[in-house]
Amino acid sequence: MQTARNPAKKQDRPPHRGTSVRIERSFYESAMKTAKAECRTISGQVEYWARIGKASLDNPDLPVEFIQQILVARERMETEPFLPEDTSSADVP
Description:
Elements: H1 25-38, H2 42-58, H3 64-79
Helix pairs in contact: 1-2, 2-3
């Protein structure tokens, strides 16, 4: 039972979702600037760069710009699913 004097035990709390990683200060500052311009969090920006880097290494024959477009399209599909227009109510002669 959780009360003011008896807080939830550590095992009752949800697991920590993030992981700390040490990076160079200049990389962090670059991520911070780019994240602000791209409307992302700093960790989101670093994750984005990591996904592009991993995909680039996995597909060295593809241009980086093409990989970026694919990743953006995937994100868009997850957040904005394609919904075809309803044509059943259209006037058909």
